[in-house]
Fold:
Amino acid sequence: MQQDLFLQQDEGLCGYNRSNSPNFDAVKIQVSRDAVLFKAALKSIAPHILQGIERISGANPFRHRTTPGGQRMSASMTNCGSFGWITDTSGYRYSDAEPETGLPWPTMPADWYCWANQFSDLAGFGVLNPDACLINRYASGTGMGLHQDRDEKDLSAPIVSFSLGAPVLFRWGGFNRQESVCEFLLEHGDVLVWGGADRMRFHGVKKLQRYQHPLTGPYRYNLTFRRSQ
Ligand code: MD3
Ligand code: FE
Structure:
């Protein structure tokens, strides 16, 4: 244990060796003033992250939740960490337990936590210290409508997102619904870090096209690391 802590400090490797680490030297695209995209940085460790998703969704399965307006969300979701994002007819919120079972969410893997912190820091936002990781799963024909993320207590903390599997067009809007929307591709292994003023932008993802990915089949997974409290 002690050894791991020293490794973490000495090599910045989160206690893991170089064969199990994201590519922190990945091509960096400054999408906007306060948004950075690290292209394909997770590619070599995608199987490891997918194993983690298997463990988490084995305990707390992916579920389609309902918006406060009564609409069934087309992406299915689960969470890990101390808190998880949920929605039902009474509203959007973070909860320390899964409502269906009363169980706490599975723990956030220590290496995911560490990588989210490293990407947040590399993008210029300092260490994120996420207490929640929302995992979205999209099948072909599903997407996510334009929305803002505003359920976190401190909206100055950035969000770090990992994309795995099928590609999708990400929709990046302005600060109200009326502003025009740009689109860019989020692909397998991409990491997007978003903070500052851009944190409050409307965003969403277009419907997934039919696709077969060698690791995830028809699915796209998106993990968002957040500080919720
Ligand atoms: C930009 N997820 O879970 S991730 C969400 O691909 C969500 O599943 C999308 O939007 C997905 O809330 C997009 C990238 C992302 C996440 C949060 C943001 C971009 C953001 C918050 C503010 C601005
Ligand atoms: Fe969002």
In short: The radius of gyration is 17 Å. Residues 1-12 have pLDDT under 50 and may be disordered. Residues 147, 149, 203 surround fe (iii) ion (ligand 2) (CB under 6 Å). Residues 26-62+107-226 form a domain with the Jelly Rolls fold (CATH 2.60.120.590).
